[in-house]
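Help! Submission page says 'invalid entity' but I think these are all valid:
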Amino acid sequence: MGDAIVPDACKIEWITLTMPYSQPEPPQPGWIESTLRQWGEPLRWAITNVSEQGLEIEAVVLRMMDP
Amino acid sequence: MIQRPFTVMLIIPTGIGAAMGGYAGDALPVARAISAVCDCLITHPNVLNGAQLYWPLPNVWYVEGHGLDQFAAGNWGLRPVHGHRIGLLLDQGIESDLRIRHLQVADAARATLGLALTDAVVTDRPLGVTLKTAVSGATWGTIEHPDSLLRGAQHLIEQEKATAIAVVARFPDNIASAALSAYRHGHGVDALAGAEAVISHLIVREFQIPCAHAPALAPLPLDPHLSPRSAAEELGYTFLPCVLAGLSRAPQFVHGSSLINGVERSAVDAVIVPESACGGSAILNLSQTETTIITVAENQTTLTVTPDQLHLSVMRARSYSEAIGILVALRQGLDPRSLTPSVQSVKAKH
């Protein structure tokens, strides 16, 4: 069971970002998730497009707000 | 001879307008067919939920999406159960009559299905669901008070001793919207799906117990042109029956030292996914294992993320029928390519 309940000062946010990627193998989910953690705890994410700029990712994150 | 169980995972991401599975449990026939050729089928509520309609499948495991992702990542295992004590969590924002309708579904589940349910808990604030559509065409949403959702779930677990949570949140009624009209006619994207996923993901992430969600909505006016794919959601007052049925035998999540008591991702022999939706966490994690990834081309979605773009090694099927044929071959230890007219010679490499 979880240790803490999400406090009032938090938000669920949708973010989109593009991550450059040119490796010849599948991208590592851990690498994507560690990048997403800059914005919050990822609840759900997916690569929604692959373009010349890289991997376009849409994600829902749980973000703690400043008090 | 002791055989290894043949385990398959079926993924049809919610909220991306999948031609099959993007509506009212319309991928349930696919799940039923796959379940007939495997020992265990692991799939998520979006595939099995048909509001008033559902189908009991003893060898199918109902696993919430976040739990599925954690399982595919190797972080969690799945342990079968005989049954759950289901806690019903109702959004304070549901109006009185509609709340009664949902409680009556719970009553019916007790009396007619014999399910074990706790008393329901109402959240201490309206959850405040909002819906949006992303640039990709996928739907998403958020809730204004995630803390209230989690407090309610915690109360059900600690005070009511619930071992699974069914959440009902009040969703916006957009009766006149073009998106709803398209959905009712079998086109477009389920506008509710993204927000529904967020709600259940929050609970599963925090408490690591089975969870599923049913939206509370006002009844829609009769539409004589309703698509068969959307019809299951307009048969009654709620979407809750399938959720209670599905949760009643959903596997427990295990992790850490308890992982050995559950089924781990290494047991998954094959995973089936729409060809244009290969960019999810579960597929990318399973691509690093021995699991065979089978893509289905005719289940088109709003996305265009194909195996080639991500350098994924997959078996390609045009349809779910073909994918099922591949599963039958794999289960027999056959190379599916031997079932085609041309078989390549074995070459010696130096």
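Support: the input was valid. A stray whitespace character was the problem, and the output above is from the cleaned input. The longest helix of chain B spans residues 96-113.
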